[in-house]
Amino acid sequence: MTTATPTVAAGTQKTDGTPTTTAGRVRKRLNSRTATLVSIVIAVVWTIPTFGLLVSSLRPEDEIKTTGWWTAFTNPQFTLENYQQVLFGRSSSSGQLAGSFINSLAITIPSVLFPLAFACLAAYALAWINFRGRDWVYISIFALQIVPLQMALVPLLKFFSTGVTLGGVTLMPAWDLVDEQKFAQVWFAHTCFALPFAVFLLHNFISQLPGDLMEAARVDGATHPKIFRTIVLPLITPALAAFGIFQFLWVWNDLLVALIFAGGGDETAPLTVQLAEMAGTRGNEWQRLTAGAFVSIVVPLIVFLSLQRFFVRGLLAGSVKG
Amino acid sequence: MKFDFADQQPKFLMLMYGLVAFVLVVGGLLLLLDVVPAWFARRREAQLVAASVGGGPLPRRRKQREGLFAFFFLLPTLLLLVIGLVVPAIRTTLLSLMDGTSTNWVGLRNYGWMFSDDSIVRVLINTLVWVLLVPLVATGFGLIYAVLVDKARFEAVAKSLIFLPMAISFVGASIIWKFVYAYRGDGDQIGLLNQIVVSLGGEPKQWLLESPLNTLLLIVIMVWIQAGFAMVVLSAAIKAIPGDIVEAARLDGVSPWQMFWQITMPSIRPALIVVVVTLTIATLKVFDIVRTSTNGNYDTSVIASEMYNQAFRYGQNGQGSALAVFLFILVIPVVIYQIRNLRQQREG
C-alpha cells in the first residue's frame, strides 16, 4: 500500500505549474481554485449536521425545543445543563450516561486486546511457520468473514445461557452471568467476530516483512516464539495500532452485539444501547438526545483525530494492494 | 447529583478481571511456547546421546516441531472461531428449518413465509434498495470528491471533514440526522431540512413517517457515513497513479475529461471494486440506523433489523434464523467476487 509517495505528488505538481500561455496559466489557477472552493463547501455541508447537534446540545432546553439551532448565532444562550443531566441526572429517565460511559469502556478495552493478541499470533503462524495445510487454514479463516454475525447470535446466546452438552454429558456448564459479569459474554462475542478480519489484516502486514530477517534469526537458532516477540512484534506496531483503532471504533460504536449479550440493564448497557433506547422512548427530549449523542461521539472522535494516520494505513492495507 | 463513583466499582473490578485474564492467557501461551521447545531440545539432546551411544538411527523431529508451534500459535483463534462462528452458523442453518421455539422441524416453511408474507417482502425490497443505492451513491460521491480535492489547498482538512463521520457510531449518526429531519407542526422548525423547505415556501413534513421517502432518507445517513471511506481509499489509489503516465497524457494535450475516463478510471479500477464490495457487505448488514431512527416501523425495515425483531423480540427463532441464512446467501457471491479480484490483482 505504498501509495501516496511524496515524490509522485511533487512530480505532478511541477507539471501543473508550467502551462505555456498566460491564459492557460490563469485558467489553470481558476480551475484549481474552483475545485478547492467546491470541495471546501462540500466539506462544510458534510459537517453541518454534526455541528448543529453540538450547538444544540449546549442550548437551554426550551430554546432547543422551540427554535432552530441556527438562531443561537443571533440569540446566543449556552449552558452545560444538558450534559449535567444526561451524565449525572437524578432519575433514570435522564439517561445517567456516566455509568454507561464506564460500561462502554469496560466492554471496549478487553474486546480490543484479546483479538489483537490472538490474531497476531495466528497471523505470524500463517505467514512464517511452515506446516501442512497452512494455505487451507488461512483461506478458511479469511472465508469466515462471509458469515454475518447475525448468523451467530441465537446459538451463541444459547451457548452462554445453557452451556454445552453432548450426548447427555455436560462439556461446559451454563455461564449464568448476572449484571456486570455479562461483560465477559460481550468480550467473548466481540473477540470471535473480530478474528477473521484481524487475522486477514495483520497477515497482510506480517507476510510482507523481509524474509531475510527471519532466515537470519533462524540460522542463529532463534525459535518461533523468540522471533515473534523480538523481531515481529516491534516491526508490526503500526499494523497493531491500525487494527486496534479499527476494533476500538467498531466495538465502541456497536449496537447489535451489546444489545444481545449485555442486555439493556443500567449495569451493563453501553452508551449506544442507552442512546438508542432514549431515541426510541424519549425521541422528543432533544436536550438529552443531543447532549447524549455527543457524549458517545467524543471518545471515538478523539481517538480518530489523533490516530487518523494509522487508521487510514490500516484501511488501505485491507483494501488497496499496491 | 445522584451519580456515585462507588456504585461503579463492580464494573471496574470486572474490567480488572478481564485484563488479568488477558495477561494470564496471552502470557501463559507465550510461556508455554518457550517451555515446550526447551523441553523438546532437551529430549532431542538425550536422544542424540542415546543414538550415539547405542548406535541407533538419528531422530528426526524438525518437521513435527514446526507443526506443533503452528498449532499453539493458532490454538486460541481456531478455538474461538469454531465456538463463535462455525458451530453457530451451522446451528442457525438448522434452526431456520425449525419452528419458532426450535422444537419441531418445519422444513422450508420459514423460507416460504419469507417470500410470501407481505411485510417481509417489503423488507426484502427495502434491502434491495439499500444495497443498490448506498454503494453506488457513496462510491460515486467519494470518487468525485477524491478527484476534486486532489492537490487542492487545504486537502488534508477537507478530507478529514468528510472522513469524520466514520468515527461516529451509527446510533450517534442516526440521532444527528433525526435532528435534521425533526418536525414541528406549528411555530418555528427545529429541524434543518424542514426549515429549508419552509424558507423555500413549502410545507413542513414528518419525513420519517412517509414511505417510501423515509427509506431514502435513512439511506442518506449511511451514505453520509460511508462516503468518507470511499473517498480515502480512492484518493490513495489516484495518488498512486504513476506520475509519468499523467505527464505523458498531458503532453499529448488530453482534456481533463479524457484524462479522467482514460487514465484515472482504468488505473483505480481495482480499488473501486474493493470499495463497492466492502460497502455492499456493510449495507447488507445495516441494523443500527434502522433501529434507532424508526425501529423498522413505517415500512423501513431491512433484513438485518427484521432478523433481530423476529428472533429476539417476537421469539420466532426459526423465522429469524431463516432471515440470517438468507443474508448469508446474499453475501457469499459478493465475497467470492472480491476474493477472485484480490487474487487477480496479486498475480497481475
TrEMBL record, chain A:
Sequence ranges assigned to domain ABC transmembrane type-1 in this UniProt record: 101-307
Compositional bias (Low complexity): 11-23
Keyword Zinc: no
Keywords: Cell membrane, Membrane, Transmembrane, Transmembrane helix, Transport
Segments passing through the bilayer: 35-55, 101-129, 136-157, 187-206, 227-252, 291-312
Sequence segments annotated as region (Disordered): 1-23
Keyword Transferase included in the entry's annotation: no
Protein location: Cell membrane
Protein topology in the membrane: Multi-pass membrane protein
Highest taxon of source: Bacteria
Major location category of this protein: membrane
Pfam families noted in UniProt: BPD_transp_1
Family statement: Belongs to the binding-protein-dependent transport system permease family.
Protein name (record): Alpha-glucoside transport system permease protein
UniProt source species: Micromonospora vinacea
From TrEMBL, chain B:
Alphabetical list of SUPFAM superfamilies matching this protein: MetI-like
Membrane topology note: Multi-pass membrane protein
CDD domains: TM_PBP2
The keyword RNA-binding is annotated on this UniProt entry: no
Domain ABC transmembrane type-1: 124-340
Membrane is among the record's keywords: yes
Principal subcellular localization: membrane
Pfam families linked to this entry: BPD_transp_1
Location in or out of the cell: Cell membrane
Transmembrane segment boundaries: 12-33, 68-90, 123-149, 161-183, 216-238, 268-287, 321-339
InterPro entries hit by this protein: ABC_transporter_permease, MetI-like, MetI-like_sf
Keywords: Cell membrane, Membrane, Transmembrane, Transmembrane helix, Transport
Family stated for the protein in its record: Belongs to the binding-protein-dependent transport system permease family.
Record's protein name: Alpha-glucoside transport system permease protein
Organism in which the protein naturally occurs: Micromonospora vinacea
